[in-house]
Each structure stands twice: as structure tokens, then as C-alpha cells.
Amino acid sequence: MTRTVLVHPDAQVLAEATAARLLTRLIDLQSGHSPVHLGLTGGTVGIATLAAIGRSPVRHAVDWTGVHLWWGDERFLPDGDPDRNETQAREALIGPLGDALPAANVHPMPALDPGAGIATPEDAAAAYAAELKGLAADGAELPVLDVLMFGMGPDGHVASLFPGHPGVGVSGVTTTAVHDSPKPPPLRVSLTFDAIHTAREVWVVAAGAEKAGAVASALAPGTPASTTPAAHATGAEATLWLVDAAAIAEVAAG
Ligand SMILES: O=C(O)[C@H](O)[C@@H](O)[C@H](O)[C@H](O)COP(=O)(O)O
Q1: Which of 104, 130, 132, 253 is deepest in the core (most CB within 10 A)?
Q2: How many angstroms does the Cα of residue 241 sit away from the middle of ligand 1?
Q3: Which residue ranges traverse the bilayer (predicted)?
């Protein structure tokens, strides 16, 4: 597994450059296999990246009928709630793609919907784990995403796996329910590290001085996931850290 760190001048350039990188990566991947499975993230840089894709003329070079969208985590809220990562991704990217992206290619984590049997984040996690099984190789349990994107919090969380919280240590399943999230809202659903580690490529995007400590911790050798979950956000084939100068400052300072 290779790890690469790429530094950008600021958050806006980071989002635009990550969008360009992701678009060309999708095109390259599609020259080898289809469909391609992409895992999306919430957060300001993650959504800004999706919006940059949604504005980019290069988006027309991707055969979106061969791209499936999944999520690394979700806020457990009713469908359409503006705080849901899915809602923000629909506004930023899925809407602008229009009919080019088939509705069946979009796989959101289930929303709060007691009438549909999704009354708890545990219900949503179980339903998503069942859907993800369809991505597993024959007979295997674990799904394989081609590219799985994460933002990172100032505490070093990725997805909804927070330092000192039980989700970091969950194994044997691909999804977990999250309660008492330090980042609102309190109820969430997240992929586990079992699912994260089977992704071929993991991309972590981070911008801003408030992330510098967590980036330095995550990139330092031997950092445990319990203190900095982002340190263990690694792909089976490649891990890419896409940061701005402010977020890498403590690493650069040595
Ligand atoms: O549901 C969420 O909130 C995100 O998935 C979360 O993991 C986010 O990516 C980080 O908290 C970074 O968010 P910012 O880029 O806004 O700091």
C-alpha cells in the first residue's frame, strides 16, 4: 500500500484540484472496468469537491451510467434534511449531473423513517451492510469500493469514527451505528475500518490550521486509531492525503 501526501495552496484550490483528480481517476478506472464504485464524504471540503465536479465541464467525459455512489458516513436524520450528507451531495453533484447518472446508481445510507422500519441508526446500519454485500467479491463479506473519500475533523475523526468512541474498534461488520457523536447530529451511521480497508484507494482531504495537529498525528508512524482514527484510514492499494498548506503546517515544521 502506497501513501502519498499532496499539498495545495488553500482550501479552494484543494477542492478544485481534488475534483479534477477524481474526474480523471474515474475516467482512468473506467478504461479498465465498469462499474466503478465511489464512496463520498460529508464535510465542507468534501462537499466543496463534489460541487467543483458538478461545475466542471470534464464531468461530461465520465460515463456516469458506470459510476455508483456510496457514502462513508451519514447523519441519521429524515430524508431530505439539509444536514444529511446525501442531501448536500444531491445539491452539489447529483442534481447537476441530471439524467446522466441513473437514480439506481446512488446508494445513500438509509434516512430516519420508522414507517419503513428504519427507526434507529442500528436499523440503518444493518440495511446498508446488506446493500454493501452486493459489492463483495463472490462469497466474500467485505465490499470493495474503488475510491473512498474522507474529510477529517480537527480531532482526527474520519467518517463518523471518533477518537475514544466504540465505532473505531468495531470489527466483523461493515457498518456501525453511532450515538453521542461529538460532531452534531448525535446519531449517525458509519462504515467501519473493516469496510474502509477493503477500498482500493482511500483519499483523505483536509484543509485549515485547525486540522494541522490531527494531520501531523495521522501521518506520524505508529499513531493508534483510538486517538487519531484518520491514521488508520488506509486503502488496500493506495492512500492519498490531499491537504492545503495550513493543514500540513505542523508536519512541515517537523
Ligand atoms: O458527516 C460528516 O460530518 C463528515 O463525514 C465528517 O467526517 C467530515 O468529513 C469531517 O468532520 C470533516 O468536516 P469539515 O471538512 O467540515 O471539517
Answers
A1: 132
A2: 15
A3: none
